[in-house]
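Hey everyone, long-time lurker, first post.

I ran two proteins through the pipeline my lab uses and got sequence/structure pairs for each. Pasting them in order. The first:
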Amino acid sequence: MKKNLLTIFLIFLISQLFAFCLALEQDKKQFLNLSFWEKFNDEILISNIMKAYENNPDLKIADTKIKESEKIVKLSLAEELPHINFEGMLGRTFASSDMLRGKNNFMIYNYSQTRFLLPLTASYEIDIWGKNRLRTKSFKESEKMLKEDERAVYIALTSAIAADYFNLIKTDKTLELQKQLLELNKKLLELTISKEKNGLASIDDALEIKDKTAQIELLVNNLEAKKEIFENQLSYLLGDKLFSKVERNTFDNITLLNQVPDEINSSIIINRPDVKSSAYNILRADYEAKSAKRDILPSFTIMGTLGYNGYTHGTHLFAANSGLADLWIVPNFDIFDGGRKYHLMKLKKLEYKRAQDEYEKSVLASIQEVNDALVMSKKEKKNLKISSEILDIQSQKLKLKEISKESGLANELDYILYQQAQVIAQQKLVDDKINYVISTINLYKSVGGVDFTNSENL
């Protein structure tokens, strides 16, 4: 029966531990804000974010810093509790000559003595002024600051992954369009050279097209290198030690976010990690300033000893007449310390003032970043709309030119020029579409990882 109860207790304990670890894991995953990234309707993007969650070294470092901070809080809490330690001692005293004791010069011939000391020593500083409690509270605020720093790492990481991911898709599409443009330019060069031989074009026309062709080839080479750089950056962010090929979607499957606001309430910045961290820093500095001020006051320590003090070994050591016990209170007050504690108090007050100024600065910087992100988002949205209209116009003009070509009213060279214009318009649309996507990502980052497409969060 006892074995069954022990087994049930162990199973319950393990299940509770597993549930606690699972809760911590879920709490960390909330920092990813997957519900926001799922609105891009890109499973590969979500997969990459989860891969980074498992492998990214920056997240692991941030998590370790939190654990270190938790231990610092526990160390500070331990300083508030009594300290009990055991210090055993075995000593043998030898005299080089006879010893005289007492008024009457009592003679002890060949004096020697063995002493056994087995005490438990306890000490406890009475926290009358609460300075130790304030110090522990300060460490707790530092822990909260680190947790906000960790959340900032998650927001920055997911934003960087998404930005590089869409830039990589943009580079793929741009490279594809530039290769099309290169082929069209080569055809145009062949036609121009042919016309130049027949005296219908000048050598300058051919040279100009050759120059454009060379420039496009340079651009293609640069895009190839740029693509590899984005892949390397993503591999690093994903924690991929093999730096294998990064999976990604195609440009045509990109989904734009709906309901991107033109205006955002400034109160949203309260959720930003840097603003929260600055607020916690004010409390931390306040606790430290108060603790430093109270450190000037006298301190009182209770000390005591309980154990055995014997001069013989064996059973006599633990006899009643060998018992040792004492208790005393030790007051301590620095009469002169060169002004160390006074200047420390002033220093902590200055740190508190600086923490307040840093909070004000973080609030102003946050408002600026949100406003800048909104401006860029609105600008890129307008640019995308204009680019779409330009591409539509160029596509219509190309269709008309194709009809003219089939009717014999336009030649091949003119048709290629219209094809080039259509590809260039397509390229502009690709740039503006990805720029708009990245502007929404920057907006998400500026508001502290809040889903701004949800009106309830604004």
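...and the second, right after it:
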Amino acid sequence: MIPDDLRYTKEHEWVRIDGDQATIGITEFAQDELGDVVFVELPPAGSRIDANAVFGTVESVKAVSDLFMPLTGEVLEVNTALVDAPERVNEDPYGDAWMIRIRIGDVSELDALLSSEDYGRFIAAGGSES
């Protein structure tokens, strides 16, 4: 399942654009690879984070994985519900399990994100650049 109204990264984050804001989470592929998510660490609202920087972590029964910021921006809102119910990442990665909302700092960075078709081809090829 790859919603076509989102943009994607090769690190398996999704981005929903709404004007000058973006909502960010991890993809179905990412949560499936991780297995049962048991902990999520996210930045506080007000943080300014550069594109490609680590903005948090997701811990599963298998591993701890960094979350990479798809776009430079200021964190406007954090999904604090994930702190108490991290399993939502497995249950609804494109809905209730969004992670952060940001104000986009550099709209030109949108050009580096993948379309749903490109992301689909990427994961069909193994989902890794290595």
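Reply from user beta_strand_b:
Welcome! Quick read of the second one: The first strand starts at residue 7 and ends at 8. Strands lie at 7-8, 13-18, 21-26, 37-41, 48-49, 54-60, 64-68, 73-78, 100-104.
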